Amino acid sequence: RHYPTLTLYPCALTRGAFYFEVEVMSGPEAPPFQRQLAVGVAERRFFGDSLAGDGVGDRPGTWAVTDLGASSCDGRWSEGDASGSNGGQGTGDGGDVDGGGGGGADESGTGSGESPQAAQTGFVIGCLVDVSHGVVRFLAGIGKVQWQRTVQLEREGGEAPQLPLVPALSLHAGVRVRVRSSEESGAFAFASALAGFECEPLQKSLLADH
User: Fold this and answer.
1) What is the pLDDT of residues 95-153, one digit of tens each?
2) Which residues contact 19 (CB under 8 A, 6 or more apart)?
3) pLDDT in tens, 161-186
4) In angstroms, rounded to a whole number, what is the distance separating the alpha carbons of residues 169 and 176?
5) Which of 36, 49, 74, 108 has the fewest CB atoms inside 10 Å of its own CB, making it the most exposed?
6) Whole-prediction pTM value?
7) CA distance linking residue 198 with residue 128, whole number of Å
């Protein structure tokens, strides 16, 4: 089953903190405990493998979460999150995108909230990439933040990632999502939850001097 990956190369993140959201618009009914999508960031040299089922979070140089709450740091899924890896089958501004595990905290991050469930229409994953402080914060849920994950932006061994980083998402065939990178493309679903963080909408990264 194909598992294509989209990387937003124009958004080259080298400093500061930026936020974007991915909302599920529609998709096929998924078997229990099978991930439908993963959202996060990757080093710009990253390439996924659709046929092998490797997307963002599955390979070194990527940091991500799945709709089932599994978190990945540098391609290493949190212990016990078989729904994150392809082996466990747990895996533009306002543009629509078509695709042709269990909750837990990453060893390099933290997790909290309700027990995650497979993505449904209206499910949102928010991604706050704080390059300056070396951390990615994820918010997810339908209508409200139901769970959160925090992943450290570091490579195995504690090394810093190779900049720039680019936003990335992977999704199974049949899943349709909307990427929201500014308030102009519709209000952020988790705007109120961002009140305590200093960050810019992802679209502002296009205007940054890299």
Assistant:
1) 555 554 333 333 344 566 666 677 789 999 999 999 999 999 999 999 999 999 999 99
2) 126, 127, 128, 129, 188, 194, 197, 199, 200, 201, 202
3) 999 999 999 998 889 999 999 877 56
4) 12
5) 49
6) 0.83
7) 10
